[in-house]
Amino acid sequence: MNKYSFLNDYSEGGHPKVLELLQSTNLQQELGYGQDSFCIKAESLIKSELGREDVDVHFIAGGTQANLIVLASILMPYEGVIAAKSSHINRHETGAIEATGHKVITVNVPDGKLTPELVAQGLSEYEDEHTVMPRVVFISNSTELGTIYKEIELKALSEFCKSKGLYLYMDGARLASGLMSGESDLNMKQLVNYVDAFYIGGTKNGALIGEAIVLVNDALKKNFRFHIKQRGGLLAKGRVLGSQFLALFESGLYFELGKHANQMASKLVQGIEGLGYSFETHSTTNQIFPIFPNSLITRLSELYGFYIWTKIDSENSSIRLVTSWATKEEKVQEFLNDLKNLKN
Amino acid sequence: MNKYSFLNDYSEGGHPKVLELLQSTNLQQELGYGQDSFCIKAESLIKSELGREDVDVHFIAGGTQANLIVLASILMPYEGVIAAKSSHINRHETGAIEATGHKVITVNVPDGKLTPELVAQGLSEYEDEHTVMPRVVFISNSTELGTIYKEIELKALSEFCKSKGLYLYMDGARLASGLMSGESDLNMKQLVNYVDAFYIGGTKNGALIGEAIVLVNDALKKNFRFHIKQRGGLLAKGRVLGSQFLALFESGLYFELGKHANQMASKLVQGIEGLGYSFETHSTTNQIFPIFPNSLITRLSELYGFYIWTKIDSENSSIRLVTSWATKEEKVQEFLNDLKNLKN
Amino acid sequence: MNKYSFLNDYSEGGHPKVLELLQSTNLQQELGYGQDSFCIKAESLIKSELGREDVDVHFIAGGTQANLIVLASILMPYEGVIAAKSSHINRHETGAIEATGHKVITVNVPDGKLTPELVAQGLSEYEDEHTVMPRVVFISNSTELGTIYKEIELKALSEFCKSKGLYLYMDGARLASGLMSGESDLNMKQLVNYVDAFYIGGTKNGALIGEAIVLVNDALKKNFRFHIKQRGGLLAKGRVLGSQFLALFESGLYFELGKHANQMASKLVQGIEGLGYSFETHSTTNQIFPIFPNSLITRLSELYGFYIWTKIDSENSSIRLVTSWATKEEKVQEFLNDLKNLKN
Amino acid sequence: MNKYSFLNDYSEGGHPKVLELLQSTNLQQELGYGQDSFCIKAESLIKSELGREDVDVHFIAGGTQANLIVLASILMPYEGVIAAKSSHINRHETGAIEATGHKVITVNVPDGKLTPELVAQGLSEYEDEHTVMPRVVFISNSTELGTIYKEIELKALSEFCKSKGLYLYMDGARLASGLMSGESDLNMKQLVNYVDAFYIGGTKNGALIGEAIVLVNDALKKNFRFHIKQRGGLLAKGRVLGSQFLALFESGLYFELGKHANQMASKLVQGIEGLGYSFETHSTTNQIFPIFPNSLITRLSELYGFYIWTKIDSENSSIRLVTSWATKEEKVQEFLNDLKNLKN
User: Is the ipTM, as predicted for this complex, more than 0.95?
Assistant: First the structure.
């Protein structure tokens, strides 16, 4: 048993306030399948947060499910989605998108972020009826590599997509961390102007389980509950999802939790830099990728949980450290102390 | 707002003991994706309950998802599943099975229960490579109509399936109620001898969400986690599912809850019969279908929540009343009192 | 080796004029994938025959392929097609429609023909997002049982479909025989007013292979070549399909061949009736279903090829006799003579 | 209208001997769906050619259909196929493989040929149940770039695949040209030892339409006709495919035609080299990729049909010239003469 796990941001359960609401409303009778009063209130809170009454909100148990339902609902059988080779849908969803019949058209992206130029590269493979027609661009914020989109970048991507008849969809599994990054100049109200659909990740930011799909573009809203049900995503006790998002959005908890996770990561970054180490990517969110000598990594792994990420050279590798709403500052300090000791 | 809802068995949240365990273990760090200590313990408890160490257990968020993952994992592209026309996969899953590429071959079944003869009828449509090849028989216990399988019936069906090279799969959304019926002579240890796979329903029997898929036949076990992940069913916080089943199976709670639901239904049945009304089906489980005059139904519906089920004749219809672990005896009594008053 | 096979209408190759055109144009260089001059001319001839310049015509190798491509191109993932239980897509295409992800919603139909009432029965199973949403009605003319649609019947069905937001699609595998039936008052120009899409069957009426899909409703035309290509139906030498339809539609050959097949079947009907036998269905097309004593069927089967169709009672069964463009009158006469002799 | 089209190897119809056989057997009555005497004889000839009585042979209308049926028949839902980024299934089949639910895992390949090292690169993306499991390696011979596999290369690939539990499948759309290349040391008898399945391309080598799928590995043979039927590939008049392969394999015609196409391409290569031009790839098959100045390409395109392939630099591009069984030597000479004149 190690001292603390930085393996991921879903090692603990849910934020206490989330559990409290589940508890206090537990015996209240409600309608099933997402038509309960908690889903309705949570939807209303999210709309307020976005400053948009015209969006549709649907609650779903997990991120892979959110991605496959949204993409399969948008795409005609012969259409595909452009994504970074490193993206979650391409790398870590066991072909969930292909299982719904659609190609993921990949482009190599060093920092996990798509740009108009990179999307254009994906588009350039399209010719005619012998090739898959690109229809959606898939991005995530923060990305798999901890990087974020600045407003100007997202705007450029959004405009490019519109000019090419492409929908822009954002996987927000780590949206709280992405938006609360010290370097982010995006907020929810701006975000909703640039994407056609996205999901607000709960699982990795304080919920027990749950993601909130937001459909912005009217063209994507029709009969969406049928898609959810068909893919097995319409929970009888939708109340469990709704009440969690209610707790998260009632008084800004969602953003506080993302901020806390970032602060813990930031503290790690400063400490690690202070010890003279560098990083594989420039991350200001809750996933960081310090580069350590392999021997140091071995010793660290006896004390802490984390993934070894990339082999940098014959003697050094990067590791991934992930913080969350549940990470205590003392654990961060303990890690830095141990790192300092191991270095010597 | 009515006095009480008998609409379904998922109107409330989870059983207090389920919530307690979620609460008490909340900050414990665990591995993700169902490899946490709660899933492991719950799996072990379920194996003990079944008296079988060799089965595989996987936890899933919902029933439609369980059905589609299991069936899609078993079937070759050209194979199909035989089911009652009234079965959940045929009637109320929005084509989830077909969306994975497979035909549901239906047979008309008056009481929701398949027999060797009815399965043979489904088989009779099979000819050669121009027809879908039946490979699985889908049943549920209790059924959509509240009926149950006796051991002798399940045994006969199981033997028939084996003799025809068919797998037998049971949807156990309401398994606790089915097994705890006063007329049931089946228990979990027997059940596991007769089916190749089944799921133990949590959502409708005390869990917030969750079903436990049990794979009995070795041929069905291989790489099952890939199927779960691809269909969007592998939750990062699998612990949430595991700890609920841990609470349900730690000291027989699962069966107690099913028994309680049945007792409440039974009390309703006795009271309604005592008032001179009859029922559409013979149910000893937690769904009952009394037949009332339409005018009475209208007045009842102002006081209680329920679905109108079948038009019996021009003046009478059946309604569905569902009880659950959370139904209090006083509510049942109140309903019967109101019914008596409305009758006069 | 029997004297003649009435097994089906694809026992021989193609009509001599079809082969002649393939031969005479063989070394002419043409563009691939259906953009050759033969496809273009055949498309033009078909449009003239329909009196409609605004339809789209696409040539495809076979009927199952035509059905699955058209239906999969129309349906959203959660939508299904209403069809007779006896229909080809439900009974004899190995789940081809389900393999594209869609449910076939069946209704029992004694004579193979759908009516507004029967479609309404299929619609009645639809409730909400828990059920598949019906979107297309599938019919065939002639049907699997040799019956045909009269204009008034097709008109009523068409109007009903429009009023319910359903598309009407006709499988025309045996369209020539259907339209040229002595009892048919439908022609191609009328037909096109009542259906949203259909296919003109070539394989069973003089072509070596090939069916011509006609898309009437503008909503169904977009990017259809992508659907064809994705399902493996866009032949490099599309010319082979185009030139066959050119031969069939250049001077009314298509209809002549259907008429001939019907005349041969009609001659069989008269002869069989003359011998005192009755039929399972009333067919005026090229499939007939006489009822014979089983002992007679056994002896007949030593001389002629045919399928035994339905067990009528313990001593009698129906058989299916199919005629085609290639059936010679002398073979029909020979069959009737043999039947007469066997009877005595 | 240009003097001659080198656009592709399917600009003309079928070889005269193919048409002759269709013609001479046209009125013979045969069983449907590939159970006719021509399919049976052609299957037998192909088995002799391979020196293997234990393989299964199935005839199919086109190459995309062959690829999608074979791959979908092999793969479990969560499995994928490793292929060159430039491969036909990845680039030019409109996502046909993904439409059956499977991921194409791509590797960058300069000359279109996979090697154990490149396959290992595809394998390296595989981790666990979060990633698609590679199960098949897809190659073509000749490749999209005109290159071929030598026996030693195919053997190495085959052994590597076996060692990794991967099936090896070869797309043989241009197999005749590949095997008859002057540099090829492979023949059909050797080939069958190295692959688990492949198809013998007819459409691009003398047939009107048609490909012959050969299943070598016993594990891939079961119920294959169900797969064909479900995907719309089981033609009622399968005789049309069988008799063409009968004509092609009766007396070595298939290989003669491939040889002729190669000779015409070789003559082009020599002539073009003689005029001082180079080539984008080293091809000894019927697709060649000479590099010409753009201005010359413009003038050439007024006389001949071909595709512009790759932009080499600001002033030069490669074009693709394809020869076939139908290409006459005089047309080749004419092209070379015109090229010489245009050069000056």
Answer: yes
